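Service request form, structural biology core

Requester: graduate student, group of Dr. S.
Request type: structure prediction, single chain
Budget code: on file
Notes: please return the result as structure tokens.

Sequence provided:
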Amino acid sequence: MKQYLEIGKVNNTHALKGELKLEMWCDGIDFLKQLNSVYLDEKGSGKLTLVSARPQKNIAIIKLAEINTVEEAEKLKGKVLYCNRNDVKIEDDAHFLADIIGCYVVDIDTEEEYGKIVDVMNYGSCDIYDVESWGKHTLIPAIPEVIKEINTEYQVVRIKPMKGLFDEN
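Core staff response, request fulfilled:
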């Protein structure tokens, strides 16, 4: 499992004192507010101190202690920011998307393997798992009627497939 997880991408500066506009890839502003530090790469390099985070429409305005001018902030435009998974608390039944990607999808009743999750998307109502098998992609809604068990330790997601989901025509 990855230790450092993507939380979002800096898409612009905000005002003159080094604030940044962050396109959030995490669960939202409350998730960000748990953090004291963010990192500039997936190895935990470039540790920066998160001073504040507040919502603005669908993004977050964040302030980092080390960034105090618009010129310094400009250097972070386009950068992806990361958090250390040990710095956040999530619900017991919740999972980091980075841990779900790479899991095998298996039928809970027949143990038939349908493929591997290669991406997680969200268009509003629920997450959608992109399952790839031999170059073919199938999109699975991550709803309780379909997803029956997620075990990231063993990299398995057990499902009860909806009629027609994996039927070959």
